[in-house]
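Office hours follow-up: a student asked to see two folded examples consecutively, so here they are.
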Amino acid sequence: MNKIRLLCILHVPPPHHGAAKVGEFIRNSHVINETFECRFIPIRSSDTIADIGKVNWKKLYFVIELYLKVLWVLIMFRPDKIYFTASIRSVAFYRDLLISTLWKSYRYLASVEIFYHYHTKGVDEFVSASARNLALTRFFLRDIRLILLSPMLSQDFRKIDTIQDISYLPNGVENTLSEREFNQICDRRYDPSKSTIHALYLSNMIKSKGYFDVLKAAIALKNNNIHFHFAGEWQNENDRGEFFETITQHDLHNVTFHGFINGAEKQKLFEQSHLFIFPTRYPNEAFPLSILEALSYGLPVLSTDEGSIPYILDNQCGIIVENLDNLLDGLKMALNQFMNLETSQYCRDRYMQNFTLQQFEKNLVRTLNA
């Protein structure tokens, strides 16, 4: 029996962000590759977080390259299904709009199902800005099978009436621990001979993602037994300079910056931490993988009600603040309620039941075959 031919056009690192990490997993997934006959075309645009949203000649070259690659694969491979990681606005939207004309034309020659997977939010804001944006987005999404990260994001498409249907596919992250290893981590984490609490911010160092709000909390709790760890890639040098100037100005001996980390370094940081703090107000925040990673290591989470975060967390594994002015109060509440073995086990169980890569694979296959 011939396999269904699947063309995947998706983001992969670099840079390292949620959509790219998910794209890399899909490309390397044995389940996806065994279920379908696959072709993968990476979307190349930005090399670093700082490059996102900027226009240059290199990006124009990438657009032309992508257009020609998609055209060639459509002609030679003749896919039955197309999976595409879609963008919201700016130059990336117009790039996607241009590329979409290829499969919209291909539909006149062959039967094909087209899936757009959105890893971000902001469509409603974009289409509300002008009648042109609304008309173009309706055209872009006409007769498309939409994949969203959670039902909480469906309102973002309330003005789009051209979509064929919507499916919901929560993200997943790799389980790097056996249960034995997890129990050993908890034994070390709650060793009564250790009095210091370790709080972790791990994401791109973008101000709207909340790292500076965590730094303010570090200032307020400078003389308490809590150490703050930061890890991530900087968006720009001005933010980097301000961060370290603030540390020096306030003599923050309770702060460590680890830079961009991955692999064993990241695992070690999760293992030694007690609490994950992610007070994001990033406009496109939809379903942060970093929160899923924290839960997989048994870390309770202090975050905001941005995007699908309330879908991921409940009141037994996280505290959600609606106003960042209340972040310090939320942090104190988390330190009072969540620093125990039972909470760590609950966080781990919530991850295992809902957000593993195996569940994501299974759900993606089911969505593409629906």
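And the second, which I mentioned at the end of office hours:
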Amino acid sequence: MFLRLIAALALLMALASCASLSEQECLAGNWEEIGQRDGRAGRTADYIVNHYKACDESGVTPDRAAWERGRQAGLRAYCTPDNAYEVGRSGRRLSPVCPAASLRALDRAHDRGWRYYRLTEEIRDLMREADDVRAHLVDSDDRTARATLASRLNFIQLRHTMLEARRAAVARP
């Protein structure tokens, strides 16, 4: 019985954490501010449906016009080359909410950030491989195996240096 209660509470907490807004946010009803936050996050216009669902139990209906005004203001912050770069650098895709006239510059900035992200992931994988090779090097008593491992480690270090240089080329100035 106690385990069922814990499971039920965990499920309720999980469901509550999925809501786009808390009950307090619904009741406060600062829809323009909520819209700004959603715009800065690159949310599409249909995202307000999530707020309708989140606020339904509170008996609150979102002010769609105020929310959209705020979202449009937030999109001005989202749809910048600096933000597009950061979105790419974090490994995320740019949301399709920006004006067509700015897409070329945003795509370039996002691609640059995306390359930085991919190079960082490659460097991280390479460092894990280097750690594995070092561990085998320490554990090996075979002279030939140690020479092979040392050679592999040298190659990894060279590759690491090359990747770091490539990543520096796409880092922010």
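Two things to take away from it. The chain has eight helices and no strands. Residues 7-17 have pLDDT under 50 and may be disordered.
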